[in-house]
Design goal:
binds fe (ii) ion; elongated
Length: about 150
């Protein structure tokens, strides 16, 4: 049983963003499985992967918003920063040997769903208006989008 199920309500309609959000949901489910497995090394490994991927996603999302001149770009970035600080606190505790996975998972489940449905859904229209409808189903192999993906995800 997955801990967090993807539902259509979470689709923003921008394919490149939805793919990244799905990957984050997958990693949350992996963290849950690792937590159930109970091996601290595995838990910390998945936790690290989840944090890295999420930070790359935030940077990508911020660049997309900046490119589109999204008026609430700064506020959105601030929300990402506050979340990043909260996660860093969890990582500090994890580094001392504490299993933070159960608490982190319940925080993530609520935060991510609210963030995607609220803050993320809010920027879609501005991005489509500014960058054109192609951004929704963009071919990510080249151009600005391809370069940004390479820059943040390698
Ligand atoms: Fe976001």
């Amino acid at each position: 049983m997955a801990y967090l199920h993807w539902s259509n309500e979470l689709d923003t309609g921008i394919e490149v963003i939805d793919k990244q959000h799905r990957r984050i949901v997958d990693l949350i489910n992996e963290l849950n499985a690792a937590n159930e497995g109970g091996d601290p090394a595995v838990i910390n490994h998945v936790l690290g992967e989840l944090v890295d991927y999420t930070l790359s996603h935030f940077s990508f999302e911020e660049e997309l918003q900046e490119k589109a001149n999204y008026p609430f770009y700064k506020a959105h970035k601030r929300v990402h920063e506050i979340f990043t600080k909260r996660v860093a606190e969890f990582q500090k505790r994890a580094a001392t040997g504490e299993n933070v996975a159960p608490e982190l998972l319940s925080m993530l489940k609520i935060w991510l769903v609210n963030h995607i449905k609220g803050d993320d859904a809010d920027y879609v229209e501005a991005i489509v208006n500014s960058l054109g409808v192609e951004i929704k189903k963009s071919d990510t192999s080249g151009g600005w989008l391809g370069n940004a993906l390479k820059k943040f995800f390698g």
